[in-house]
Amino acid sequence: DAGVIQSPRHEVTEMGQEVTLRCKPISGHDYLFWYRQTMMRGLELLIYFNNNVPIDDSGMPEDRFSAKMPNASFSTLKIQPSEPRDSAVYFCASSFSGAANSPLHFGNGTRLTVT
Amino acid sequence: GQQVMQIPQYQHVQEGEDFTTYCNSSTTLSNIQWYKQRPGGHPVFLIQLVKSGEVKKQKRLTFQFGEAKKNSSLHITATQTTDVGTYFCAGNYGGSQGNLIFGKGTKLSVKP
Fold first, then answer.
1. Residue A102 and residue B97: Cβ atoms within 8 Å?
2. Tens of pLDDT along B44-53?
3. What are A10's strand-pairing partners?
4. Any chain A CB within 8 A of the CB of B80?
């Protein structure tokens, strides 16, 4: 089991540029979550999917953020245009079930720096 | 919205000393999960508590869930340098993992 795979590990971009973060969940996991981690706000849930369908995107900061899951093995989080305040570590996580007792398996994260 | 408060924010201990971090919610939780994040790493699931008053142990780690299911603690006995990292509690308010709210974490440093 390779675990949740995220790419890239690091991304440095200039303000105004489009950024795309990628995630491959653990095979067989039908829930996928995108989190953002900052020192000030901690771990925040941005959006989560069940069977490729977005269930709750109320954590998405604004219209500049969008997420897709075209199939069971791939998801993207896009920021367009990016701003310096988007700098953070973005984690993707998956779980076998969305039930309250199902642990989250996190990827290694993408550290985004917007200058 | 729902919040899970975690204290302390930082804890510095000498190797061999004990360590405890506390989580508190203003409303009843359906369960609470604990995660550990090593420096530069990602959160890794440690354990889940579901029942009122539940106590679980993993070697030197002891996890407790309060009787009212509003608070929880993680206690590490005789810390080691391998315990370094940030410990997060995550409270679930029911239904699904989409209702999981993470505390801000306690960053533990251990001086050898």
1. yes
2. 999 999 999 9
3. A111
4. no
